[in-house]
Specification:
Elements (H helix, E strand, L loop, with lengths): L27 H4 L13 E2 L1 H7 L5 H8 L3 H9 L7 H11 L3 H4 E2 L5 H8 L1 E10 L19 E3 L1 H17 L4 E8 L12 H5 L4 E5 L6 H10 L16 E4 L10 E3 L6 E4 L4 E5 L8 E19 L2 E12 L2 H11 L5 H4 L8 E11 L10 E8 L2
Parallel strand pairs: 3-5, 3-6, 6-12, 7-8
Antiparallel strand pairs: 1-2, 3-4, 7-9, 9-10, 11-12, 11-13, 13-14
Helix pairs in contact: 3-4, 8-11
Amino acid sequence: MSPDPTSKKITADEPVEPATATPATPTTSAKKKTKMTTKKVPALNCNLKRLIEEGDVSTCGELAEKLGVSRGAIENLVNGKAKSISFELAGAICEHFGVTMDALLEVPKNDLWATVRRVGRVVIHLASRSFERDPGEEQEKDSERTVDREYLGTWDVLAKNALIEHIRGLGNYIEIREEIHADQGGNGGVLDGDRLVSVCDGAVHFLVGSPAASYHTEEIVSAMYGVPPRTPGVNGSFPYDFVWGPHRDVRSSFAWETTDDLCGIIDPNTTDMVAERTFVGEEGGVGLDCGLIVTYRVSKARTPDGYGEGLVIGLLGLSGPGTMAAARVATRAIDAPKLYPDNTDSPAMRVVQAQYTRPEEKTRRDNRQLKTCKLVGS
């Protein structure tokens, strides 16, 4: 084998120079630093309140004493104010109640109530109407009788109470406000393109009641679909429409008037009946009612910090039991995720079918009792 002419022969008498490392040419992958991205972890829901209600302790203080922690630490978890929880405390809670970690902490789903928990503020809108004054009644001098008395529908109040009870179960930290809007009456209106943005202030808004009783509801829902309120002739703009008889003294952009006894909710494209309403008289029996649940995510709602996403939910009954049924469906864990709109600025509408009973009684009092309710249609 021939010797390499470039190689240098080193003898034992010659000093050996230390070898130097030749710097490697950096490759493309070595030149660039890998950018680490952190995926935002969703806030977890803490179910401690439910565990306390179902467990062997009755108060936060009692649980805190058993676990050897401060009462405030437990109360913050129950009220939803805690920003974090240590593994030690979470493990102690799970051990005490005999549950696994996923029973205590869960990743929230995209539904109406996850938004309520996150926002922490709710506004419930109701509509009032004036009692008609007796034409023969003499005008009294008392200043209190110079104004009309206002009233709220019984079923609207019941639906509102069901919402409040459910919201309180989510956490006592959630602020609840009520607004009552006097019905303006009349037929026809002007579309206000900014109406949805103006009504949303960073809170979650619930509209309770039929469009026949609330101009405010009619106005907001019509704005969701880009049509003027209380303007017949725009039928087909909505996925579903109410159908009612001419006895109602108001009109709606998403309602048809008929001259027969047909009453309920229809698909305007096919005119097929989706949900029905039947009347039960003093003889008593089982009847049907129906309602609509309309949800809308506003992409640019005015919030205290500028602009953010808002949420509007309409619970609209054809009559009283329909409104209450809409509230009951909206608060059910199995149905709430189905009501959440997939996209912002695009309303979603679902139909509720309700069944009620009325006892036999010689009275005109509304003694109907809601029995069952369910989502129908697509």
